[in-house]
Write a structure and sequence with these properties.
CATH architecture of the largest domain: 3-Layer(aba) Sandwich
Number of domains: 2
Strand order of the largest sheet: 2-8-7-6-5-3-4
Distance between the termini: 20 Å
CATH topology of the largest domain: Aspartate Aminotransferase, domain 2
Structural class: alpha/beta
Strand content: 15-25%
Number of helices: 11
CATH superfamily of the largest domain: Type I PLP-dependent aspartate aminotransferase-like (Major domain)
Length: about 350
């Protein structure tokens, strides 16, 4: 079951969130199944009193709070309208000639590089290895002249988590070649080992870590992401980012999330680990389905279908929607991703899997 050869020479439009259909239980999104903390919802409503006022052009107070939360220097954080805005900002600012992208992964990484004039090179991972990255592949593209590496940990959609020691070595290899190392950690709070590559930015000035409050605190409608990097680079990025990228309600809700982050994340991790195991077990029980071991709040699986899309249609007939990955570079027909939801919804999914 090898992964499909990937083509990153053209834009891959993969913006399907929010289009699952009325009445379907949506397993295509990968957010905290608990939803936003109640404190964040209350802060959002209180922010209504300030909707007629402009927010600060740059949310420095929020950035300082995030920096304190993840224990980095105050000037090492740049907040934006979701990590996607920051991905595009980084692509424009770095203007890499030949960036390497470990796939399959979030499609906007390749889109942003192409839009910035780069010629991205795919570093495929293989389904028969559960999409684990072979470090030798990084050496190959660096030796071939790539001036930057983009990868996810835990990666979406595969759920694979590059170990902390391994990501540190990959970053060191990039440093020896004077190449950038951009690490997408949007799901790191869900990971089995939540240690962040943000710990590397002081000693490795060409490491950039992208993180998100959208996923762990279920703020998809407000969009809050942030980049962590050496303060000198963050200053350079801040000079290029659009002002007023973080709105008043988003900043208020994000600040409230940080007030309760420790307990909310601990509760979330207990739920996600238990429910993810149930979904993986249900998938593995079918002779036609092979789940990919995950370290995130979602599970990817390869389904033996009689015709492309059979499994998606089966799920839809039972009121469910999963993420169809057939068009994502590095995947192909029969690959799906399932976000972990609350137990009652996961019960419905497990029954539908057993019926396939």
């Amino acid at each position: 079951m090898s992964s499909r050869a990937a083509d990153l020479s053209r834009l891959t439009i993969d913006r399907t969130h929010g289009g699952t259909g009325a009445g379907l239980i949506d397993f295509s999104a990968s957010l905290n199944p608990l939803g936003p903390p109640p404190e964040a919802i209350a802060a959002y409503h209180r922010a209504a009193d300030r909707l007629a006022l402009y927010p600060a052009p740059y949310p420095r107070a929020l950035e300082a709070r995030i920096a304190s939360w993840i224990d980095v220097a105050p000037g090492a954080v740049l907040a934006g309208n979701g990590s996607t805005q920051l991905i595009y900002l980084i692509a424009r600012e770095l203007r890499l000639r030949c960036a390497a992208v470990v796939i399959p992964t979030f499609s906007e990484i390749g889109n942003s590089l192409i839009g910035a004039g780069s010629q991205p090179v795919a570093v495929p991972t293989r389904s028969e290895r559960d999409f684990r990255l072979d470090p030798a592949a990084i050496d190959t593209v660096l030796e071939g002249g790539s001036d930057g590496i983009f990868l996810g940990r835990p990666n979406s959609p595969t759920g694979q988590l590059i170990a902390f020691e391994e990501i540190r070595e990959i970053a060191a290899r990039c440093a020896r070649r004077d190449a950038w190392c951009v690490i997408d950690e949007a799901f790191i709070e869900f990971a089995d080992d939540p240690r962040s590559a943000a710990d590397l930015i002081c000693s490795m000035p060409k490491v950039i870590v992208l993180r998100s409050l959208t996923k762990i605190f279920a703020l998809a409608g407000l969009r809050i992401g942030y980049a962590v990097a050496h303060p000198q680079l963050i200053g350079r990025l801040r000079d290029s980012i659009e002002p007023w990228s973080v709105n008043t309600a988003a900043e208020a809700a994000a600040s409230a999330c940080l007030d309760v982050a420790q307990d909310w994340i601990a509760r979330t991790r207990r739920l996600v680990i238990s429910e993810r195991c149930r979904i993986e077990t249900a998938l593995a029980a079918s002779a036609r389905i092979r789940p990919i071991p995950s370290s995130a709040n979602f599970v990817m699986a390869q389904v033996a279908e009689d015709a492309p899309g059979d499994f998606a249609r089966h799920l839809q007939s039972r009121g469910l929607a999963a993420r169809d990955l057939s068009a994502l570079p590095g995947c192909g027909a029969g690959f799906y991703r399932f976000g972990v939801r609350m137990p009652a919804d996961n019960d419905v999914l497990c029954r539908a899997i057993a019926e396939y």
